[in-house]
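your task:
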Amino acid sequence: MLNKTLFLFSVMIFPAISIAQRVNDIIIDPKTNGKDFNLLLKDIESKNDVNFIYNEEDMQGISAYLIQNKTRLLNYIEDYLIEFNVVSLNDKTVVLMKKDFIPDLGKKPDNYWITQGKPGQMVTINGTIYDKSTGETVVGAQILLPATGRGAITDINGQFSIKTEAKFQELTINFIGFDKKTLLLGFDPEVAEKKLQSNLYPESQQLDVVTVTAKRLDENVRSQLTGVERMGIESIKKLPTFLGEIDPIKSMTTLPGVSTAGELSSGFNVRGGETGQNLILQDNGTIYNPSHLFGFFSAFNPDLVDNVTLYKGGGPASYGSRVASVLDISLRNGDVGRYKISGGLGLVSSRLTAEGPIKKGRSSFIIGGRISYADWLLNATKNIELTQSSAKFHDITAKIFQKINSDNFISFSVYNSHDDFKFAGDSIFSWNTLNGSFLWDHTFNDKLNSSLSIANSNYSSNLDNIDEITGFTYYNEINSLRLKYLMNFDKSEKYVFSGGIEAEGLIIEPGKLTPTKDDSNISASNMQNQKGIEAAAFVQADIDISSKLSAMVGIRLSNFFRLGGEEILKYDFNNIEQRYPVVTDTINYKNGDLINHYIGFEPRLSFRYLISEEVSLKASYFRTYQYLHLISNTTSATPQDYYVVSGPYLKPARGDQFSLGLFKNFSKNKWETSVEGFYKITDQAVDYIDGADITLNPRLEAGLVQGHAKAYGIEFLLKKKTGIFNGWIAYTFARSLRQFSQNTGSRVSINDGAYYPATYDQPHILSLVTNFELGPKTTFSANFNYKTGRPITIPINKFSYGPYLSILNYSERNEYRIPDYHRLDLSLTVKDNPSKNGRYSGEWVFSIYNVYGRKNAYSITFNKYGKAKKLSILGSTFPSITYNFNF
């Protein structure tokens, strides 16, 4: 632990030390050879009106030596203690700091701030932040102590207060539109207590956006939670892109335990879970389709994203509703200090963002939009159907932030997106999302705070067939209203409590078919609307049991109510006709009537044991319930995909996950390593009987079966966080298996009741991400992905009757696999010289996606004769150029 020591030592023991009033005048001679340097400095302090500020542990084992003549103390330290920086703050105060502790800052006296404090004790730092150019105080500046994760925000008077341990540490001050400032804090019990007063300078040149969060540098070692992945937007922007589009979702798939089926894949799979088992939130509003154009582009505008957090288990007790993961994306607030415009111009899409103060220092806005123009790319292909097709999307994201006072902050955000894909002139696929969120953060006192969120989410999809005779419109929609109230109570450094309530109302229109003309030979058809309410209460305690052992204990109690009006069919499952059980009766439920009620008890337990300061062992158990089911038979979002809620025949899924991990950091948290294993059981997993029709089927539940799924694996991560060369290597070995038999509660056996791989089972997944700073303005990045091919079912033989009839005999379900997937991407980012006033800057991003043109198989299909056909979505190299700008 870094600390400043002031010790006294008798000058009688070291008579060779001369008395001086200035540090630079202190002389030592050969009689001090062999003396402990700690004791030497203490003796000098006791005899002279000087102070040495240093870390006592850094001086352990160091003795004075090779002193042949009388020499100045500071000259000796500089010549022989070469691992230390010697910084004179004034004539009487010197800082001795190891050069590997913030090397650049440690050399400059102006970067130090020394105040009263006894090493090891808790102190309070009070300060005021000013705008150097105007002399006005800065409201909303972010103060952070990275070593501890503690932070504060300056109030309406530009003031802040933050508690910390009196030890050498870094303090950063950040505010949008100003250069980031970093100070080194030092403490001395004999100096006068001071108030920190610091000036911020307007940006002299465009800097990388700095997101200040309450995150320790060693959070991966010290936090109680397992299975948590966080990525700042700047890390995401450094990854090579497809056609210049920055994608937070694809960025997460480079981390262990996260994967996709490949190109043209919407969503992602986490630890053997389905894509529909991930809860995706943007400012607490649910995103049901996280991509544009069948997974080619992300639904999230990177210019407005603040940070991205993925919980690969159940996560804190405040999260629920899904059995695989929670992806929480926060939008950033607009600049409350000045107006800005940023954006990017690419080959197939462009984006533009504007932000600025509504009332300087108190409120702000930010609005960003994106638009695509990819038709030229389709027209350039040799496929006749694609040359006759059209693909486009646009979206808009906006947020308003208002500081009511120092204890209350509110914000409003809205997100709207639209996709169109016209295929070969006769079919138009479209998707629409409209979300709105309200957030209110309130501080009662320095120990108690709360947050309230209200979010409405609407997602719909269409399929329009414009044929003259068989034209129709197919439509489905899901609408949800989510309310969440959370309170946090920081009782002390060792005890943190939280709790709250959450409720979500759902209205689902699973499918509706309408002919486009009265004389069409297509008949109108629709499935019944479904309604449900999910409500939950939760509590959680984060406890430091000892200096080494900490725990997170949480309980979430969830309820689900299936509501009318609906007609519910009753079946005789012992009487089967054409694959489906016979309908014996119909029960009518009026609007608001209770059809079903489910309750779920969801314990969350996580423990962390510190083996040392840089090594920890973590273990956890999470249980979650999911009452909403995605009905899909493809790996990409299509208009035929829809959601249904649990009911009389479709029970909620229940997930139980166990994990154990070892986490270690190196070189003062510059390197991270982790090994984490997991075992997950999902009961009431959903699959389909052979030949089931999932589109506009009024007896859908009769074509679905529920059984048992299990996933297990081990994840490895090696990450270098800083330096001109940084990046990570992630490897995952995992299996995802399913079983549907009478022993698992399924009324129909699949694969003769034996376990079979899920369609997204990929045992080996490897990701390598590297960033190399070639210079202050040039960065080279590379990304390599490898994963085992997905399982498929294939015909293993056939019976032929003459030249016209063939009967194929298929293998066991998912017994075979498509070829393995691998891909290399490269990018080069070159920053422009900033304008003279520092307000304008830009950068060029050159990317090559799929460098060696690997024809990765998306799927393999078979015709009626058993002949295979491989579909490769991106079977060639895709270069791109994007220009990003800020002013």
